[in-house]
Amino acid sequence: MIRARSQSARSLRPDGKPTAESVGPDTGSPTAAGELHRFVIQKHAARRLHYDLRLEIDGVLKSWAVPKGPPFVAGQKALAIEVEDHPLAYASFEGVIPAGHYGAGTVMVWDQGDYQLTADQSPGHAWRAGKIHFLLRGEKCRGAWTLVRMSPRQAKHTPWLLLKNRDGLQPALPAGEDRSVISGRTFGEI
Ligand code: MN
């Protein structure tokens, strides 16, 4: 089943173009390997700059803070620290969180799009199992990654690893990596 939300996420692009047109060869039919869900990566200039990877799982945005951002070369990995779930509506948030509030600083929608699991299981099951193989179809991130939980879940800040997998797709260069995919703005302009 393809959700209508997938289309609305695409329609957020300011120029109105769909985002799936240059995904690359053979990512398969969207319905072949699993249902589409939304993802977003927000670049967040908080006390420390980081990227927040958020995957729609069971009606919320499961979230990881990735200090160095997602790896783009097969075999590379990055630390991804589990942080609080966010509501789905937060996926389109871009702006400034005022000083004194949680996450104070500037938030940019750095990438967004759909994801699907590459294995035949539900996202909730994969999340609970601590191993999520997924295919991102965003504007900057296209291809296969895996999240692997590194320890039993803790009350806070459970460490995961985000690994880039080989996927046979064209390299997904983060073109325009310092601009928002929804507004085209830089941090300075937000
Ligand atoms: Mn953050």
General description of the model:
- There is one protein chain.
- With 190 residues, the protein is mainly β.
- 7% of the residues lie in helices and 38% in strands.
- The chain is built from two helices and nine strands; from the N terminus they run αββββββαβββ.
- The protein has helices spanning 4-10, 123-129; strands spanning 37-45, 49-57, 60-66, 77-86, 95-97, 105-117, 131-138, 142-149, 159-164.
- Strands 1-2-3-4-9-8-7-6 form an eight-stranded antiparallel β-barrel.
- The longest helix has 7 residues, at 4-10.
- The protein is globular and about 40 Å long.
- 34% of the residues are buried.
- The model is unreliable at 1-33 (pLDDT under 50).
- It binds manganese (II) ion.
- The site of manganese (II) ion has 6 residues, from strand 2.
Please summarize what this structure is:
The protein has 190 residues and is mainly β. The chain has helices at residues 4-10, 123-129; strands at residues 37-45, 49-57, 60-66, 77-86, 95-97, 105-117, 131-138, 142-149, 159-164.
| Envelope shape | globular
Biggest sheet character: 8 strands, antiparallel, barrel
Q: List the ligand species.
A: manganese (II) ion
- Counting DSSP E segments of at least 2 residues, the number of strands comes to 9
Structural class: mainly beta
H/E element order: HEEEEEEHEEE
Distance between the amino and carboxyl termini: 36 Å
Low-confidence stretches: 1-33
Number of helices: 2
Strand order of the largest sheet: 1-2-3-4-9-8-7-6
Task: Please bin the fraction of helical residues.
Answer: under 10%
- Assembly type of the chains comes to single chain
